[in-house]
Amino acid sequence: NLAGDTNKNRYPEAYLNFTTKWVVFGGGLYADSIQQSGLSVSNGNFLSGHNAAPFFRLKVGTNGYIPLGKGNFRFAALWEEGTMGRDNLVKNTLLHHKQLFLRWGTTERLEFTWGIDHYAQWSGHSPTQGELPSKPMDYVRTVFSLPGGPGANASDQENVQGNQLGQYYFIFRKVVPGMTLEGRIVHPFEGFSGMVFVNFPDNLYSVMMTLHDPSFLD
């Protein structure tokens, strides 16, 4: 008998956004935007991919890059809070995510973007440790990657609160006749040592060439 005993509804995406000229508010189940034309299997994401259902999140962020001053300086930011549900080993883990990107210059000369993409899993119920720290100060320690408080395990007290994952971006873009060239250095981190570049051999280096008017080759 191949029929299941129960039915369960799943929603690949179900969300609501409110967008102004500068800011976007939203919430629900939504996939992240595609990076580098979908060439990356992981989509440049440390936590989730486009082949899995997204987690429930609430977000506030900029509506694209926002200029600061009269020069060629812009920034983009995102702040998200979510839950990873009950289908994991640690139940009801909370998810904090933030991004900040700073961009200088123009692609006609040379455009440089620096960014940080930071995830932190915290709180929830562990089958071995019971209820994990979930007080307001535990959230503050999680957001700012501080050592765990008295209620945290020994590893978190020695390192940082929760499970911290992220990456730094260094992106160079320039337009040349017929194409746009992009070079990336992405530095991943997991814990404090990576945040201060101890694991720089783990860097990901990539070059992308986008043809402006491809006739046969894309």
Task: Walk me through the topology.
Elements lengths: L13 E6 L3 E7 L26 E7 L3 E2 L5 E11 L10 E13 L3 E13 L2 E2 L3 E2 L4 H8 L10 H5 L4 E14 L2 E11 L2 H4 L8 E8 L7
Antiparallel strand pairs: 1-2, 2-3, 3-5, 4-5, 5-6, 6-7, 7-10, 8-9, 10-11, 11-12
Structure description:
With 218 residues, this protein is mainly beta. It has three helices and twelve strands; from the N terminus they run E-E-E-E-E-E-E-E-E-H-H-E-E-H-E. It has helices at 136-143, 154-158, 192-195; strands at residues 14-19, 23-29, 56-62, 66-67, 73-83, 94-106, 110-122, 125-126, 130-131, 163-176, 179-189, 204-211. Strands 1, 2, 3, 4, 5, 6, 7, 10, 11 and 12 form a ten-stranded antiparallel sheet that branches. A two-stranded antiparallel ribbon has the order 8-9. The mean pLDDT is 88.
Radius of gyration: 20 Å
Average pLDDT reading: 88
Please estimate the helix content. Answer: under 10%
H-E string: EEEEEEEEEHHEEHE
Main pleated sheet: 10 strands, antiparallel
- Poorly predicted runs of 5 or more residues: none
Structural class: mainly beta
As a percent range, the share of strand residues is: 35-45%
Shape from CA axes?
A: globular
N→C terminal distance: 47 Å
Give a count of the beta strands, DSSP E runs of length 2 or more. 12
Count up the helices.
3
Tag the structure with descriptive keywords.
218 residues, mainly beta, ten-stranded antiparallel beta sheet, two-stranded antiparallel ribbon, 12 strands, 44% strand, globular
Summarize the structure.
The chain is mainly beta and 218 residues long. It has three helices and twelve strands. The N and C termini lie far apart (47 Å).
